[in-house]
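User: I've been going back and forth on whether these two constructs are worth ordering. Before I decide, could you fold them both?

Assistant: Sure. I'll take them in the order you sent them. The first construct and its structure tokens:
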Amino acid sequence: MPATAIYVLVAVPVVGALCGIVYSLFTLWCAVSFRSQKAESPSAKFAPPISILKPLCGMDPHAYESLRSHCVQDYPVFEIIFGVADPGDKIIPAAQQLASEFPAVPIRIVHCPQRLGSNLKVSNLIQMLPSARYEYLLINDSDIKVPADYLRRVVAPMESASVGMVTCLYRGVAGHSIGSKLESLGIASDFIPGVLCAKRLDGGIRFGLGSTLAVSRRSLDRIGGLPPLADFLADDYQLGHRISEAGLRVELADCLVDHYLPEYSFSAFLQHQLRWARAIRTSRPGGYVGMVFTFVIPWSLLTVLIMPAATWAWLLFASAVLLRYAVSFATEARVLRGRGFEDFWLLPFRDAIAAGIWIMCYMGRQVIWRGKRFDLINGKLREI
């Protein structure tokens, strides 16, 4: 093999590992410098009535417990609107039971018979919105469990007229399957650090997270409402991005919520990761390309495999592993308040999978969502 080829063969993974180390140091700083959650109580002065919109489709893990947590909010005036496309949906009895259990909370179930786009969640929301009575709206997924002061903490930043949306970080609560544990680990060790990194680099949040999307009707009107999002896969990203582009701020709420994860099989986990990756690629193509430089363990491992006799290669690998674990533990301790340390032995395996998913993302444009296959074109879903 020519000397130039050997040099390139060694240089590429070394450069990748060094870039990953720089990224890991930066995300470690982001996690360590993250302000402690619940440092102070939210202001009681600003607590406008709010409509909670919950689009439902099937029974998610811990669905009743998650939905019930929205009914016991320490908040003066709120209503809950559940939206279902199928009048025979299995989640409906749970919603009806909540309405009986909490007669003081206005709870309505809205049938959403029309299909107004490829994204059925947004289609439901469009049909639910006319039933909402209040200026302020909160949208989140049915598998999200929230603390009792959730509404107060989410609404508080919206007292400023410059804030167009409030979103929220979340913990992935894993089930017992390996796929569920890997998904939770990815949220804690990769996704949340990535959000904090983007917040630092962009000077603020410029997207939304599906765990919490709190907006005013004024903000929605400014971006043309929900209908323009009806075909997008990453509707949460699009909503936050468009509000940011309209000149309004997107803020992170001073609270965390729990996201209950399904008992993914390994193949279902890979399928979900690929859908997530293709959603990110179409939403932030430049940022997705840059993710190749974040795979510090795969790059450093490749360096060792190419140069197994080189002491410096093993030192590079050891440094990469230590830094990767430092970022994960700092995120758990400082941001997510340390609830998921038991599965961190899976981290190198999960990172190897993430590198493979990054490559696979460029090998097609199809995604599978709730059992249906779609082409993903410019961020929009087209059912096959």
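The second construct, handled the same way:
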Amino acid sequence: MWNNFFSPFFNVDIGVGQDSALSPILSTLYLSPLFYIFEKHVKNLKISVSFLLFVDDGLLISQEKSLEKTNSFLFWSYNIVSLLLDQFGLVIGYGKTEAFHFPRSYGTFNLSPLNLSIIGSLILSLKSSWQYLGFIFDRKLFFCQHINYYTNKAISTVKCMKILGNSTHGLLPY
């Protein structure tokens, strides 16, 4: 349906592969109503949570001063998202689900887990580092793990290139 125009139904027996350029477009069209419904629910419940999605990689964000309030908001948001995804015929990959907290305090703080077992999920312990879209974040946003990881990757790539090059065949030594 587009405005007042209704197209006829068509049988579709061919899927769109994950590497297809249409895949993110079709997933966005399919998930747009989910975003709309989710935003209405959290607004009505006065939960300050944002929901970001990069194709099939979702992110719930709560920006509260206390970890307890953040965990409460994330719990209710996760519950809403999982129920909506179930209604849409989709499933959350529990094995890939992670919890992460950026504390404002400079000292140590209590890492209380996010208990989702009440809604049939798992207990999420807070991680010390988090990887999202190729970036590695730590709690204080120092990016030390990110820099170390990509520095080691670059050094090992250079060492491998040295092995591939010799005087008889392959890459030239220089």
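Notes on the second construct follow. The first strand starts at residue 49 and ends at 54. The radius of gyration is 22 Å.
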